[in-house]
Design brief:
This protein has about 375 residues and is of the alpha/beta class. It is built from 14 helices and twelve strands. The strands form four sheets. It has a four-stranded mixed sheet, with helices on one face.
Length: about 375
């Protein structure tokens, strides 16, 4: 079997009918880059029976690759120069056993007109509100034309913010600078601060005390040294330092880790400004506690398809799904700064649900499409 790439195209193949949780490690040594003989035979068996059909080749490699059958030793060898993220491939029995990669299987570079005025997207990543939202943003049609629309980015890449250059993500469509992932204040990114990014910001929000406790639990051993680097050595100190986290991110210029680096509480003037910015500067607000409904709303607002990976928590604290924490350790404490903003955000979210006619019943088709209903 010969693999033929059309001019200017590079792809990798996902092997057919493999378990979605299967992973194969990939090293730098050509000799070690082999898939199993069983996988090779399975792929050939599927090819021989499918005719002109989409063959979803399903192995998730650390970097997926185009593969070639070596008839001398019945293995599939992965060559380093082929290491690219994958698309689907098609077997055409009428073209001399050739697999050709068609342009329509990759993302279009055209972005839906519903994003007009909202680009480049400026993701305001509040700690513990859902790093998984990055899956949705990167899979917006046209944002990263080299990223296959149905490819689930591995958890490790989300956590490490590893943006593969082969995805060809457009800086004019989304701001992917490191500070976006690491909780920069919006006066730090983009250049020009809020006035430059107004209308481009997107954010997930979370009930303030729940978010605070999730963040505290995340920084337990072995991660507590990170808190220590900000001179935070106790729970009480943590609560005092991180109160008003969202308000600070909406008004200050910390390039990284605003909620840990900016330990003075928001001023009255900052609170007024944060409320105004929340109400006037965001093209999308979602709620972490209503994740599935939030993602459905996003897809309706921006005319996107529903995918299963949008509804998975890639970076949950302690490997759990979204957790409801016992508030007893707070001894009645409430983050009054962020509570005001959370209430405004909730109102905005509910208003958009009504505006776009989105509800649990209307989202059933989306959730079925994603295989989560």
């Amino acid at each position: 079997m010969v693999l033929v790439l059309l001019p200017g195209q590079q792809v990798a193949m996902h092997a057919a009918h493999t378990d979605k949780h299967t992973h194969t490690e990939c090293s730098n040594s050509v000799d070690s880059l082999h898939l199993s003989e069983e996988l090779a035979h399975a792929a050939d068996d599927d090819v021989s029976t499918m005719g002109i059909e989409l063959l979803q080749v399903g192995m998730k490699l650390s970097a997926a690759a185009a593969v070639r059958r070596d008839d001398e030793n019945s293995t599939v060898q992965v060559q380093p120069e082929w290491l690219q993220w994958a698309a689907a491939v098609r077997r055409d029995n009428e073209t001399n056993n050739t697999v050709q990669v068609q342009p329509e299987w990759l993302q279009s570079s055209e972005i839906d007109p519903s994003f007009n005025g909202a680009l480049p997207i400026e993701w305001v990543h509040v700690p513990k509100t859902g790093s998984s939202f990055l899956q949705t943003l990167l899979h917006i049609q046209g944002v990263c034309p080299g990223l296959p629309l149905d490819f689930e980015i591995p958890k490790q890449m989300i956590e490490s913010y590893a943006i593969d250059p082969e995805w060809k993500c457009s800086a004019s469509a989304i701001d992917l600078r490191y500070g976006r992932k690491q909780h920069a204040g919006i006066e730090a990114l983009p250049e020009g601060g809020f006035n430059e990014g107004k209308g481009h910001f997107m954010m997930m929000m979370r009930q303030p005390e729940q978010r605070m406790l999730s963040m505290w639990n995340y920084y337990q051993p072995p991660n507590q040294k990170y808190l220590h680097s900000f001179n935070i050595f106790s729970f009480d100190r943590f609560i005092n330092a991180t109160s008003g986290c969202v308000a600070k991110m909406l008004t200050r210029a910390a390039p990284l880790e605003t909620c840990l680096a900016e330990q003075t509480p928001p001023t009255d003037a900052e609170m007024d400004e944060a409320k105004t910015r929340l109400q006037t500067g965001f093209s999308f607000i979602g709620m972490e506690e209503q994740w599935d409904l939030s993602i459905c709303l996003f897809n309706v607002m921006f005319n996107q398809k529903c995918h299963s990976f949008q509804f998975q928590n890639a970076c949950a604290t302690n490997g759990t799904s979204s957790t409801t924490y016992d508030l007893a350790p707070l001894h009645g404490y409430r983050d009054l700064y962020d509570t005001e903003l959370f209430d405004i955000g909730t109102t905005m979210f509910e208003s958009n649900l009504k505006r776009y006619n989105v509800s649990e019943s209307s989202c059933e088709s989306c959730w079925r499409e994603a295989g989560v209903f």
